[in-house]
Prior knowledge:
The structure holds 2 protein chains of 2 kinds. By secondary structure, chain A is mainly alpha-helical. Chain A has one domain (2-273): ABC transporter involved in vitamin B12 uptake, BtuC. Chain A is built from 15 helices and no strands. In chain A, α2 (12-37) packs parallel to α8 and α12 (198-215) packs parallel to α14. The longest helix of chain A has 27 residues, at 248-274. Chain A is globular and about 55 Å long. Chain B has a domain at 2-47 and 54-87 and 223-282: P-loop containing nucleotide triphosphate hydrolases (Rossmann fold). Helix content of chain B is 36%, strand content 25%. Chain B is built from 11 helices and 11 strands. Chain B has a 6-stranded mixed β-sheet with strand order 5-6-7-3-8-9, sandwiched between helices. In chain B, strands 2-1-4 form a 3-stranded antiparallel β-sheet. A two-stranded antiparallel sheet of chain B has the order 10-11. In chain B, α7 links the parallel β6 and β7. In chain B, α5 (129-141) crosses α6 and α6 (157-170) packs parallel to α7 (187-202). Chain B is globular, with a radius of gyration of 19 Å. Chain B starts with a helix and ends with a helix. The model of chain B is unreliable at 1-11 and 263-283 (pLDDT under 50). The chains are: A mainly alpha, B alpha/beta. The interface between A and B is medium-sized, with 30 and 32 residues.
Amino acid sequence: xxxxxxxxxxxxxxxxxxxxxxxxxxxxxxxxxxxxxxxxxxxxxxxxxxxxxxxxxxxxxxxxxxxxxxxxxxxxxxxxxxxxxxxxxxxxxxxxxxxxxxxxxxxxxxxxxxxxxxxxxxxxxxxxxxxxxxxxxxxxxxxxxxxxxxxxxxxxxxxxxxxxxxxxxxxxxxxxxxxxxxxxxxxxxxxxxxxxxxxxxxxxxxxxxxxxxxxxxxxxxxxxxxxxxxxxxxxxxxxxxxxxxxxxxxxxxxxxxxxxxxxxxxxxxxxxxxxxxxxxxxx
Amino acid sequence: xxxxxxxxxxxxxxxxxxxxxxxxxxxxxxxxxxxxxxxxxxxxxxxxxxxxxxxxxxxxxxxxxxxxxxxxxxxxxxxxxxxxxxxxxxxxxxxxxxxxxxxxxxxxxxxxxxxxxxxxxxxxxxxxxxxxxxxxxxxxxxxxxxxxxxxxxxxxxxxxxxxxxxxxxxxxxxxxxxxxxxxxxxxxxxxxxxxxxxxxxxxxxxxxxxxxxxxxxxxxxxxxxxxxxxxxxxxxxxxxxxxxxxxxxxxxxxxxxxxxxxxxxxxxxxxxxxxxxxxxxxx
Lengths: 283, 283
């Protein structure tokens, strides 16, 4: 039992990491659910990496990384919208272009400066074990905002996931609610990078919600499962990292991916037992 | 079968006060200023039904989408309940052609049907007991009340179509706009559907639907419009559906046993040729 509790009860930084991680997990569960249901994985991934130059500039000029990340996300979404609307290219192409452009820009800024050697790993992998109290409060605020958006836009978000045309005819502007959804995903990515880093936040956005999608029968249940899986990933990831002296962020994401494969196996066993292959065959 | 159809046709209620739900005058429809069909003229009155008949790509779906406000009319006048289209979310139910089968989306049959009530309650207004009753009643009408808690993805194609139809009925709209509503329905489902639509007409709703099935829908509808990138004919079904008109609409017609059989040929992809032809006819 000591193995499972003492690391958190005797080390303040471990407890803070768990609290911050749980908050990140809840925000990622909500945003991640819609990333999966609306097929926004690529834009989520791009946003997670595209904020890099913003953060790098923030560190260079000494303003908070979160603000830099927000600026990066705004450029990202604005660029994608502009290219998609003003050219014949699909949004995939626009996202890929902005994604790789912003990532390169981030690397260029970082490589130009000597003061970055330690900061780069911090940006990419987060600093969950050194998370500050103010960062935790910021995370709490973001999680509340994300949850409030999901609750107040529950109907249009559900219609959007079901059939965007149906949403439009029902009187919910597809454009408006799609943008609100993107804002929600961006907010999650922006405040979560401090905890798990820009490289890994995408994992937390997609792995727990993906596991939940395999098991749930309702959207609300999917979010609950995703939050549970996220928090479990945090807990076991931190524990593993503590006992085996491994990188915390990566241990957390590996746990989340492992949970996905466990859920995947359970779902397949369940299907084979009932002999019901409809779920698989239904396109 | 023929008997029930005759009964349905003759039982169509004569209680219409003559309120005009849709009025189209010299209406041109299409995508991005390229006309698919030009110069459409018709009125749809309270308690009446009109069937749009034609092959894939003949303009049926385009017309329906224009009526519900998903596409802008590109010429002429179209008013729905006396207003430009897209302004009457509470009064119009739309059943589109493509649906989310719930392959990824975790959603139960009853949740899909409940969405039919969203346009009446907007973003936040609570759904009450009355809504629950209406939802269950719509499911009963389509014979799927026992499937209420089943996940959408576990249902067969025909059962899913019944769920979508129940959603349309649950809206209790004044105008029903349906794109190929009988797709995938078995004989039992068709029977329930015909009765349900007949009841909708009796309570004063109007119906406009796109269909391949010229025999079945004709029993229900007061008007038929034959479309083949232009309005081939419009009027009472028995008057309009002559061999010549059907030949022009579908390409090939074989008649026998008092029934007209249509062998479909798709001419949805020779847009330019068709348009050129329309223009020269106009000139």
